[in-house]
Design brief:
The protein has 13 helices and 13 strands. The protein is an alpha/beta fold. It is globular, with a radius of gyration of 20 Å.
């Protein structure tokens, strides 16, 4: 579909009935950080980008390792290793072995992965692979924490905050990831006396955040804040809020990262698959607000009404996918990624639909 109609509206908005008729797209102005239009940012290359693998619930861990190794070969800077129902991030990291790309393990549910488990796992992967290793924490869901693992979820932001305090400490060299023994008694997290026998990973700490509470946690305690999905306009506003919060806290602002689903020359089936993967976000309260602000309120209301997935996907205009994903020809995909960098996103992490997406982006 290179050069097709979907490529002409990268950041659109929509209005109209999402139930009966197609939604009419309305162009929205692009965000500019200055009163005068700055020069177009350099188009990101693999050396500027990260890749997320292993996060699909139905994913094959062997395929995740294959794509991660391909990302290594193609020169992508970072590989983020998610975990699903069939594998965990530490196993993927160890299986990947040595290579040039930095690894980020997670997002790990803080209500299940206690600080000792995280620090020991990070040190193990670093020792086995020789790579630079990072860790990402998340609040996760009640289904994962309470139903699957039988743990009390408590206040998710508190669990993430206290876990981050143990792992990272007030400085990058003062927490459990730096190999120091930590005695900590919080409201929901407690640990005493653990010292890992392996050299410390000195892992960078990321927090997966969408919403005020976890954003504050990331600003106060993390090296990086990762948004699981977002429009360019939302990321531009968030960059400003992070900076202000960091100034109030008297510490450097964490880097800002975003996951961006990506597909080169997708056919209609691929676009439907990508839209289907967005639906959990469309239904979730915070993300629903973002999609509504972007002009897709009719689709949000339909999705949250309990309508069948097929009905919601059929009602969603092409611009809804274009607003949060990079899809189209290689040039269009790379330009879309550049838009995130232009509004202050430090790390763009691709979620490739197939391995061919990475190969196509690296070839140009």
């Amino acid at each position: 579909m290179s050069g097709g109609p979907h490529e002409s509206a990268r950041r659109g908005a929509a209005s109209g009935s999402a139930v009966v008729a197609p939604v009419v797209a309305v162009r929205r102005p692009r965000i500019a950080r200055h009163t005068e239009q700055p020069p177009a940012p350099p188009v990101p290359t693999p050396a500027d980008l990260g890749v997320l693998v292993g996060a699909r619930a139905d994913g094959d861990p062997a395929e995740a390792v294959r794509i991660a190794r391909l990302a290594d070969e193609l020169g992508f800077r970072e590989v983020m290793l998610g975990e699903a129902t069939g594998h965990d991030a530490f196993a993927l990291g160890a299986a990947l072995g040595p290579g040039p790309a930095a690894l980020c393990l997670g997002p790990l549910p803080a209500g299940v992965r206690d600080p000792v488990t995280v620090a020991r796992g990070a040190a193990s992967v670093a020792a086995l692979t020789g790579r630079s290793v990072g860790i990402a924490l998340a609040a996760s869901t009640s289904a994962v924490v309470e139903d699957w693992h039988g743990r009390a979820r408590g206040v998710p932001a508190t669990v993430v905050a206290e876990s981050a305090s143990v792992l990272r400490g007030p400085r990058s060299d003062s927490g459990m990831l730096a190999g120091l023994p930590i005695d900590f008694t919080g409201a929901l997290v407690r640990t005493r006396g653990f010292v890992c026998a392996l050299p410390p990973s000195n892992a960078e700490l990321s927090v997966l955040a969408f919403g005020a509470e976890l954003t504050e946690v990331a600003v106060a305690r993390a090296d990086r804040l990762i948004v699981p999905i977002g429009t360019v306009e939302h990321l531009a506003r968030l960059r400003g809020r992070i900076q202000l919060a960091a100034e109030r806290a008297g510490r450097p602002a964490p880097r800002l990262a975003v996951w961006v689903p990506a597909a080169v020359d997708p056919d209609e089936d691929t676009r439907r698959d990508l839209l289907r993967a967005l639906l959990p976000y469309v239904r979730a309260a915070g993300f629903a607000g973002m999609f509504t602000e972007a002009g897709f309120g009719d689709v949000v209301r339909l999705a949250r009404s309990g309508a069948h997935v097929r009905s919601v996907v059929a009602a969603a205009p092409p611009e809804m996918l274009d607003a949060v994903a990079a899809v189209g020809s290689v040039a269009v995909v790379r330009a879309a990624l550049g838009e995130y960098r232009a509004v202050g996103v430090d790390d763009v992490l691709l979620v490739p639909h197939t391995a061919d997406t990475l190969t196509a982006l690296a070839a140009m």
